[in-house]
């Protein structure tokens, strides 16, 4: 017998919110957690005072399980250690650690020793098996997902392959899940819960720029492309984004096209930047990286995070539901 994701994390609904850098601030994470799912802030490259400020808002904003997402391949091993120091030292045990991509093995040991839950998003069977054997909750990301892609498999194929190898592991499906029907399909493939990203981009509590939100609600899956054009700040990784003039003609000059504020600091935004346009971004928003999954077909208007959680709560396992362990 294997427990549902909700039972493992102590939530009411087996649903994770993606810790999208720039988009997923404390306001969104806390709203999702208060609604009964597992919210998550995007730590991205934050450290020091800026990360502490985010963690303070997160802890003050909810008393429910909530997470912090970090990205090993973007920050590197030493900076990841410093980020983990802050998360583990400055937050209570109900704050779980979420990693996008595999870290070094010692990170698993460190998080486990601290008594925290660890969620690791992967794109291959090999990484999923390694993460599960190290004690992590495994998020299986399919190519239907928006944002940076960790593999080449379709969601349900990857979930089914991992379930066959890991009959007792806690597996979460990610990619193309915008409706309860898609969530049902993912659970039928062997998932113990789902992760949503695009569905939360367009909610009221998201920090996404209004243009970005509107573009997602108007888009269809056919309006997305997989490309590596937005590489500044996150090289060598394919990503699914809304098609723009930059994805259509990537030979354009790499000049500055806007400005954004992170914490209290202002930064220039170059064309081809991996950073998403947020509430604080100005300039040529229509040319910037707007990560969007195939699930946008089901995202048609701006809502509140709690409404999204309530829709999925009707079809996802709760804390009192136990999986069969048979895949």
Describe the structure concisely.
The protein is an alpha/beta fold.
List the helices and strands and how they pair.
Blueprint: E1 2-3, H1 5-9, E2 15-17, H2 26-34, E3 39-42, H3 48-61, E4 66-70, H4 72-90, E5 95-100, H5 105-113, E6 118-122, H6 125-133, E7 137-141, E8 147-148, H7 155-165, E9 171-174, H8 180-188, E10 193-196, H9 198-201, H10 210-218, E11 224-227, E12 239-242, H11 245-248, E13 256-262, E14 265-270, E15 282-283, H12 305-313, E16 322-323
Parallel strand pairs: 2-10, 3-4, 4-5, 5-6, 6-7, 7-9, 9-10
Antiparallel strand pairs: 1-16, 8-12, 11-12, 13-14, 13-15
Helix pairs in contact: 2-3, 3-4
- Class from helix and strand fractions: alpha/beta
CATH topology tier name of the largest domain: TIM Barrel
**Mean of the pLDDT scores?**
96
Instruction: Outline the biggest β-sheet.
Output: 8 strands, parallel
Radius of gyration: 18 Å
The CATH homologous superfamily of the largest domain corresponds to Aldolase class I
Shape: globular
Q: Which residue ranges are poorly predicted, with pLDDT under 50 across at least 5 consecutive positions?
A: none
Order of helices and strands: EHEHEHEHEHEHEEHEHEHHEEHEEEHE
Specify the CATH class of the largest domain: Alpha Beta
Secondary-structure arrangement, i.e. CATH architecture of the largest domain: Alpha-Beta Barrel
Strand order of the largest sheet: 2-10-9-7-6-5-4-3
Provide a count of the helices. Answer: 12
Overall number of domains: 2
Q: What is the number of E strands?
A: 16
Tell me the fraction of residues in β-strands, as a range.
15-25%
Query: Share of helix among residues?
Result: 25-40%
* Distance from first to last alpha carbon: 10 Å
């Amino acid at each position: 017998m294997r427990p549902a994701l909700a039972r493992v994390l102590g939530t009411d609904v087996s649903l994770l919110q993606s810790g999208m850098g720039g988009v997923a601030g404390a306001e969104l994470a806390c709203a999702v957690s208060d609604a009964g799912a597992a919210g998550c802030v995007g730590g991205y490259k934050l450290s020091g005072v800026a990360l502490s400020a985010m963690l303070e808002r997160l802890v003050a904003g909810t008393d429910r399980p909530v997470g912090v997402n970090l990205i090993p391949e973007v920050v590197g091993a030493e900076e990841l250690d410093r980020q983990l120091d802050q998360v583990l030292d400055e937050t209570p045990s109900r704050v779980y650690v979420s990693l996008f991509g595999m870290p070094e093995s010692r990170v698993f040991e460190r998080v486990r020793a601290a008594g925290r839950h660890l969620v690791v998003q992967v794109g291959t069977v090999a990484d999923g098996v390694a993460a599960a054997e190290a004690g992590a909750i495994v998020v299986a990301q399919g190519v239907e997902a928006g944002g940076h892609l960790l593999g080449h498999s379709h969601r349900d194929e990857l979930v089914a392959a991992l379930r066959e190898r890991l009959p007792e592991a806690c597996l979460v499906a990610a990619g193309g899940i915008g409706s309860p029907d898609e969530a049902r399909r993912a659970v039928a493939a062997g998932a113990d819960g789902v992760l949503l990203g695009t569905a939360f981009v367009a909610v009221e509590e998201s920090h996404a720029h209004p243009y970005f939100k509107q573009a997602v609600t108007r888009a269809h899956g056919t309006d997305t492309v997989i490309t590596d054009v937005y590489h500044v700040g996150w090289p060598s990784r394919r990503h699914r984004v809304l098609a723009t003039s930059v994805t259509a003609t990537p030979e354009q000059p790499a000049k500055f096209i806007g400005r954004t504020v992170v914490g209290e600091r202002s930064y220039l935004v170059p064309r081809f930047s991996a950073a998403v346009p947020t509430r604080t971004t100005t300039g040529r928003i229509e040319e910037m990286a707007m990560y969007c999954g195939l699930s946008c077909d089901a995202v048609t208007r701006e809502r509140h995070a709690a409404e999204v959680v309530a829709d999925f709560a009707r079809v996802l396992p709760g804390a009192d539901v136990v999986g069969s362990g048979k895949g």
